[in-house]
Amino acid sequence: MIKYIFIAGLLLAATSIYCQNVLFKNDSTATLEASIGEVIIAASKDNSELKKLPTSTDLISSFLIKSNEIRSLTEISGLASNFVMPDYGSKLTSPVYIRGIGSRINSPSVGLYVDGIPYFEKAAFNFDFFDVDKVEVLKGPQGTLYGRNSMGGVINVITKTPMNSQGTNAGISIGTYGNYKFNAGHYNKFTDNFAFSISANYQHNDGFYTNRFLNNKVDASDSYGFRNRLIYIISESLTIENIANLEHSQQGGYPYAVYNDSLNKTEDVYYNQASSYARTILSDGLILRLSKDNWELTNTLSYQLLDDVQKIDQDFTEDSLYFVDQQMKQNMFSNEIIVRSKENKKYNWLFGGFGFKQFFDKSVTVDAYASNMWYLKNYDLEVSSFALFHQSMFNLSEQLKLTAGARYDKEIALLDYRYNLEISGNPATNTDTVYPKLTDHVLLPKLSLSYEFKNSTLYGSYTTGYKPGGFNSSFEKPEHLAFKHENSRNYELGYKASFLNGILYSDLAIFYTQLKNQQIYRTVPSGRGSYLDNAGVSENKGFEISTKTNSFSGFSAMVSYGYTHSEILEYEEDSARIYNNNFSPYIPRNTFAIQLNYSVFLKQISFIDKVACNITFNQQGELYWNLENNYKEERYGLLNAKISFIRKSIQLDFWGRNLTNTDYNSFLFEALGNTYAQTRKPLHLGMNFSINF
């Protein structure tokens, strides 16, 4: 790690010296974007300031998004401490892990909201970033305000609003491996009361991995997206807003290859049936805001459609053994209403209600060529939920604040399951089963105490979270059809402080989380699919620290480090498979990131106004790939860099990712008696051209 930090520092120092002494004069006129501690965190739902929020929080600003060439949530990994979103070769499989809590299949364990619209399916998590203003990551259970699927934390993605951004922008990017991108947006504030924006994005990649059997790129991809936003201020107290999003993506298959245990090496991708994943996401949110003298109301009504098709050569070999065709359509309707008090010196409150309904129509077709079998599974799943929540905030003194809250959540799931089996073309089994409904009732309390002094906040908190039970889409034993809900209790101590008149900001947190009935990923006995099972007790403990600076004399920096010890204390699948005291799979022990930025105004060259340099080093600590803990990924680091040349409203960027061409496995799993892995994306370079007018 030290050698990479040294290289990064050396490159930045050389660039800085050259810029200062030869071409440029130091950018002493740069102004701060904002005092970091005064940023309002929308994900808090009570409009709390970052430095006063009694939970560990990472803010990925638009500056960080641009300077790091972040194009999806997966590329935030490392910038936010104890946050990991692995690249598993498909947008369908997009798990997120925060502080060791996450889920490979079924519902996520981390909540995602885009402009207040909930995304409850992991298959929707990996979407293309464009028009994004910032990303907020709240760590630890957020069940009191967010309910289901927020055990690990909450991610809040906020896009640009035409009330704050005006004009037109366009950009194009080209890079190695056939990587190119085009995006454009128009933001117009027609009057003080009405604003409108529309933006579009298109991305293409020829693919990083070659299928040696078919002699083509296995992971080629195309995607396009649109976003439309309307804001109408009807009166001083009433505002209505509509946000609509559409994205369609088409990907090649999965770059999985056989992992050779004896050589400790991943072989070439080599399978005979082309695989693919296609997905369409449509979402629309209608947001109503009503403001009175002492209180304000926000109502968010939303709809989301997710329609996808997966085709996969499930054995990943040159033999025709298993091929799966999975199709799913999800329709989801949700509504949340929140009423909260305005700033009060003694007491502030928040009341809310939330409800949603999801409809799934899913079919899975499997061709088992070796046994001359064909079978079709159909799942009609309906999930509905209702919740009430409250939070009270007491200002016990000017410095001391107490926050208490609770949420009641009720969820019901209904499944109609149909199974058809043919052997040698002849019908063998035909069943249609309506399973008893699953019902979850939970009460999720929260308590925190914070003390503010000077520009610092010291806090302690107790928070709870839960993830609902459900039905497995793959199972071979009746007892594996359903799994129970899991819940968590989190204890946290933290310290936040800003220094040097807001130029420097630090966030430190220590946490302990206990999980009961943790939902564990398992492979079905035949190896043809996976399901969730419940462990007894698990615990995660660790800490995280991050330090950021605003720009001073053209220089800014960010350093973050996270440590997570994630352990399964009690889990005995049967007498032969006991996993007590094993590390939880997929959870890196350490995450580390350092970013250095330097920008200068040009004084001697007339056709360039400014040059900005960015170098980022991300490191991920060792992790285990399976419950047995016999497959381990060692620690590795990635070095990325970018340099930008700016002339008024025109910008030209040159960037590189994985500049040291570091080799590692980004995913490893066991199935059908084999071990498979996906290797890293190699060094790749590119350039961007953008204009604003």
- CATH C-level class is Mainly Beta
CATH architecture: Beta Barrel
Tell me the number of helical segments per DSSP (H or I, 4 or more residues long).
3
Helix fraction? under 10%
Give the CATH topology. Maltoporin, Chain A
> What number of domains?
1
Poorly predicted ranges:
1-34
Gap from first CA to last CA: 42 Å
* Beta strand count: 47
Query: What gyration radius follows from the Cα positions, in whole Å?
Result: 25 Å
CATH superfamily: TonB-dependent receptor, beta-barrel domain
- The secondary-structure class comes to mainly beta
Shape: globular
Task: Provide mean pLDDT, rounded.
Answer: 88
What proportion strand? Answer: over 45%
User: What profile does the largest beta sheet have?
Assistant: 22 strands, antiparallel, barrel
Describe this structure in words.
The chain has 3 helices and 47 strands. The strands form 10 sheets. The protein has a 22-stranded antiparallel β-barrel. A 5-stranded mixed sheet has the order 4-9-10-7-8. The chain has one domain (2-607, 614-646, 661-692): Beta Barrel (Maltoporin, Chain A). Mean pLDDT is 88; it is low at 1-34. The protein is globular, with a radius of gyration of 25 Å. It is mainly beta and 693 residues long. Strand 21 (295-313) and strand 22 (322-341) form a beta hairpin.
